[in-house]
Predict the structure of Response regulator.
Amino acid sequence: MKSLDVMVIDDEPVICQMLAAHLLKAGCNVVQAGNGEEAFERLSKGDIEVAICDIKMPGISGIELVRQARAAGIDTSFIMMTAFASVDTAIEAMQAGAADYIVKPVRNEELQHRLLKINDMRGLRAENRVLRSLVQGRREDQFEFNSAAMRELGRLVDKVSPTASTVLVTGESGTGKGVVARRIHQQSPRANAPFIPVNCGALPDNLIESELFGHVKGAFTGADKARKGLFLEADGGTLFLDEIGELPLMMQVKLLHVIEEKSIRAVGSEQSRRADVRIVAATNRDLAQMVAEGRFREDLYFRLSVFQIPLPPLRERRADLMPLMAFLLQRGAERMGLARVPSLEPEVEELLLAYQWPGNVRELEHVIDRALILADRGQVSCADLPPQIVKDATPLLAAQPAEGVDGAWPASPGDSLRDQVRRFECTLISRAIRDADGDRRLAAQKLGMGLSSLYRKQEEFETLGLL
Ligand SMILES: Nc1ncnc2c1ncn2[C@@H]1O[C@H](COP(=O)(O)OP(=O)(O)OP(=O)(O)O)[C@@H](O)[C@H]1O
């Protein structure tokens, strides 16, 4: 890795110094800042590539600093440091435009892993956006799902991909909206053309129009050469407008015009050009609510939501957890160059299956990456999990309700044989869980079935209203 210019921002001098010492050893050029104000001043010079920034600081908070840096057009990638209990805040930071987050206490190996990821991304960005879109287009995500909700989603994705339709992907932060957008592109006739992702929340208001539509030389102070703009870079391909809810109203009008007319005009130009671009947009906001509050244009909302794909949070599709964990373990081990893929001890599996995952797949990915770094002898044990996860998940594990125990059976009159079998299964599984005091692994063992099948069945019963 070429030597990165990194800034460590934390109001605790000891943490600053420890991280700086490690980064220096790893070959980075490091500067330190003890608060947001000092950091902003230094970042304004424009030569810091990555900032490792505490979220909670007196004065300007880490999140506010990300916002200010974005608004000022500073191109630094932020990795936020957060206490595990405040993953929600980390999610807010990602929405403000941070590139990643890391949980305190920061482990050197993990920090290095995240820096490598960011270094790759920045390198590609600097080299060529088209190249980046090709690299990002590699098939490297898990798309085999167990849950009924995700299988239905897969069907929607397969149906809409080959068409020219605009798509709106909605869902909580970290559910995989970007992954779905890429999948749509890869399965479309545009697959060999660029896929250009744009984070609308990270574009400074004063530059957004020229970023999207380009500008001619001399269009405004500082425009010393013409710029093509992301729409033309995506010509023939797909433009992924992430965090579309953050687009200012004035830009929403222009975007609608471009979508409808299929032509764009660069800032300062008199002439329009045709642009053949498919739009996939994503948001974790409630756009309908934003329309009601006058913060999002209704006409653009209708245009975008012709085809909506809602991504459920991970906690509502637990049947996907096992395959996702296996996939992320494998991918993480490959990326870290491990000789073999560590396995999860049964208690670890149980805890991860019981946890609520407020940060969704992104959070799961972080937990797995961390565990891969810590695992000894090819086994991930509870000690390799963030203590907060163990703390949060343990009571859930013990208290998992076995409701609906006897209510499902006997069958109602008129039930088909299949319905009756389902009801019977539901009763047996619920009873086994109750008899095992909520211990699903034990219940699954007694019933002679796998734990993931038990979760899958439970989810199916929930969907059918049997539980
Ligand atoms: N199906 C999947 N297979 C593999 N990795 C996934 C999958 N879904 C999500 N991820 C991983 O989770 C992380 C978050 O995914 P992504 O950025 O697509 O989420 P998002 O919903 O767009 O989040 P945000 O709203 O914060 O931008 C990524 O690192 C991605 O690789």
Notes: Residues 88 and 359 are 7 Å apart (CA to CA). The longest strand covers residues 77-83. The two ends are 53 Å apart (CA to CA). The chain is about 45% helix and 15% strand.
